[in-house]
Structure formats: structure tokens, C-alpha cells
Write a structure and sequence with these properties.
There is one protein chain. The protein contains 5 helices and 10 strands. It has a single domain, classed as 3-Layer(aba) Sandwich (Rossmann fold), CATH 3.40.50.720. It is about 35% helix and about 25% strand. The longest helix is centred in the middle third of the chain and has 26 residues, at about 120-145. It is of the alpha/beta class and about 220 residues long.
Length: about 220
């Protein structure tokens, strides 16, 4: 079993990953500014308050861990302003991981980040750009920094996120020709992430995750 640091653990995919990893028997360090308020009952979860933009917090959180899951998000209300969270946090995290000797990084970005932007359908491109453009420009910079690192990284690009429990029925699209948008439950993304903790088949790759339903 691994010791996992989840950055952005208070909600969304981060929180789902904390629960899924703990349920699988891993030790989990749940890192977020509001970590003390995280509602988890699974054993083996350590709440770790900290700021992803504070180098000392990140360095302390990396002590003794084997794997880092970066699952940051910004509130919808902040999408219309300049976004720097993803790249700034990654610019701190990568060298801190190198210094600490932690090699495995699983980073959640999203469908439309990096070279998957070309796979957005023509009908979706304008609204995607208007709403998510600033955030995804920053996710592009995040992915570029990770790709330039010597870490054993995997970039996870989920489609449109939904709630609900894990179905186990999702598609891992690992070639550009297969990339397309679709729905996927956060719990299924977390399930995929937990499977990557011990697996090496997606190291150095970017994958798009969608459910088995028809793409959108």
C-alpha cells in the first residue's frame, strides 16, 4: 500500500480520490486550506491544512509520501478573471517533488487542455473558450511544466464531470485520434487515479476519460 498526497482534497475529484484511495487501503494525506473540515470517515486519512501556493506547506506535505495526486480546481465565479492557480502551484510542486525524491505525479487537468484542445468539436469551441478559456490557458502551462519534468507523470483529462457513485464503466482514451468529450462521474475519475497508483502503463501519457455513453 502506498502513502498518497492529494492536493486539492476538500472537494470534487480530490475528495473522491481521498475516499477511493483510503477505501483501497492506502494511507492518504488530504491537503487543502480547509482540510480540517473534510468529512471523511475512512481510516488512514490524515487531514493536512495548507496552501498549494506556499512552498513551505508543500515541502512539509511531501514528507514520507510515495505518490502525489494534484486535483486543483477554481470556483466557477473565478473563471472570468485571469487564472494562475494551476501553473503557479505546479511550478512550486515539481521542484519540491524532485527535491524530496517523490517521482510519481498524477495530475488532473481536463478535456481541452494541451493537445486535446484540437479534439473539441466545432460547436463546442466558442462557448468553451468564452467560459473556460482563461482556466485552460493556465492548465496548458501546468501540463507543459509537468511534461518538462523528470517525474513519472500521468495527465488525467476527464470530460464533463457528474456526481453519483462510481460505475466502473468508463473509457480511457490514450491516443489523440480517440479523444472526444463526454460525461464521466467524479467517482470514476477517482477510481482510475487509484488504479494508477501502483500501475505504470500510463506513465508519461495524457489520457481522456469519458463514460461508455455516447460522446457529446
Amino acid at each position: 500500500m502506498a502513502h498518497i498526497l492529494v492536493i486539492g482534497a476538500s472537494q470534487g475529484i480530490g475528495l473522491a480520490t481521498v475516499k477511493a484511495a483510503a477505501a483501497a487501503g492506502h494511507r492518504v494525506r488530504a491537503f487543502a486550506r480547509s482540510a480540517n473540515a473534510i468529512a471523511v470517515s475512512e481510516p488512514g486519512v490524515e487531514r493536512c491544512p495548507g496552501n498549494a501556493l506556499n512552498a513551505r506547506d508543500i515541502e512539509a506535505a511531501l514528507a514520507g509520501v510515495d505518490v502525489v495526486v494534484q486535483a486543483l480546481g477554481v470556483p466557477f465565479r473565478d473563471l472570468l478573471a485571469p487564472v494562475r492557480l494551476f501553473s503557479d502551484a505546479t511550478n512550486l510542486l515539481v521542484p519540491a517533488m524532485e527535491k524530496a525524491g517523490v517521482r510519481r505525479l498524477i495530475a488532473v487537468t481536463g478535456f481541452g487542455a494541451g493537445d486535446s484542445r484540437d479534439a473539441i468539436s466545432p460547436l463546442q469551441r466558442l462557448p468553451f473558450r468564452l467560459v473556460f478559456g482563461r482556466a485552460y490557458d493556465d492548465k496548458d502551462a501546468q501540463e507543459m511544466r509537468i511534461r518538462r519534468s523528470p517525474l513519472d507523470w500521468t495527465l488525467v483529462r476527464p470530460g464533463v464531470l457528474t456526481g453519483g457513485t462510481a460505475t466502473g464503466r468508463y473509457r480511457v482514451l490514450d491516443t489523440p485520434s480517440s479523444w472526444r468529450n463526454g460525461l464521466i462521474a467524479r467517482a470514476d475519475v477517482a477510481q482510475f487515479i487509484v488504479r494508477q497508483i501502483a500501475g505504470a502503463d500510463q506513465v508519461g501519457k495524457a489520457v481522456v476519460l469519458i463514460s461508455h455513453a455516447l460522446p457529446i
